[in-house]
Specification:
Order of helices and strands: EEEEE
Strand order of the largest sheet: 4-3-2-1-5
Helix content: under 10%
Number of strands: 5
Oligomer: single chain
Length: about 80
């Protein structure tokens, strides 16, 4: 007999490639230049939704946090650039 847990909450943190505190930038969209002002810091990992790891991110230039999926982010090797 197979039993399923109802309302089981899945937080697959092993699927996340970025760590809390890491500096990232939003991936460039076609025709738009990347700016160093568009750097964000990972504030927290959020549960995987529809197969996509999610993150709460924040920029020092903004007064609010954003939620985005991992496929919209890329790591920043040197945030001073």
């Amino acid at each position: 007999m197979i039993r399923f847990q109802q309302n089981a909450r899945r937080t697959d943190t092993s699927a996340h490639i970025f760590t809390v505190g890491q500096t990232v930038r939003m991936k460039s969209r076609t025709g738009l230049a990347q700016k160093t002002a568009e750097l964000f810091q990972i504030k927290s990992r959020l549960p995987v939704k529809d197969g996509s790891p999610q993150y709460r991110i924040r920029s020092d230039q903004e007064t609010y946090e954003r939620v985005t999926t991992e496929d919209n982010l890329e790591p920043v090797d040197n945030p001073a650039n």
